[in-house]
Amino acid sequence: MDEHTHTHDGNTHTHTHDGVKHSHSHTHTKSVINRIARTSGHLSSVRNMVEQGRDCAEVLVQLAAVRGAINKICEIILKDHLEHCIVDAVETGDKEALNELSKAVELLLK
User: What pLDDT shows up at residue 66?
Assistant: First the structure.
């Protein structure tokens, strides 16, 4: 069984893997949400640039900045996941969480 139950009371949530319940807090939730909001706004601006027919080189530079921002968000989430969720998974013997991490990192690196 691989069920995820999220309880957002601040920044704590609970996961259930193979019937084992884990609760952990994430220290960067607010920062990640703020970064996603800024990145969404930036991407929207790039869309406007394309609609306005702006120079392709300018658009590419802005897209590189958006990609860099997304990469930073991924880095923060991964670090937080390793420091909290995976530490908890190792302590409780939750091999499913480790398998999920492996799949997620594989997708992230594509």
Answer: 98
Going by their DSSP bridges, the two strands 2-5 and 12-17 should be labelled as: antiparallel
42 burial type by CB count under 10 A (0-12 exposed, 13-18 middle, 19+ buried): middle
Q: What is the pLDDT of residues 45-94, one digit of tens each?
A: 999 999 999 999 999 999 999 999 999 999 999 999 998 888 888 888 99
Q: How many residues does the chain have?
A: 110
Long-range contacts formed by 1-6: CB under 8 A, 24+ apart? 2/96, 2/100
Cβ atoms within 10 Å, residue 81 = 19
Q: Give the predicted TM-score (pTM) of the model.
A: 0.73
What is the SS3 assignment for 72?
helix
Element (H, E) at 100: helix 95-108
Which tokens in the block code for residue 13? 């949530």
Amino acid at 7: T
List the alpha helices (DSSP H) in 29-55: 29-51
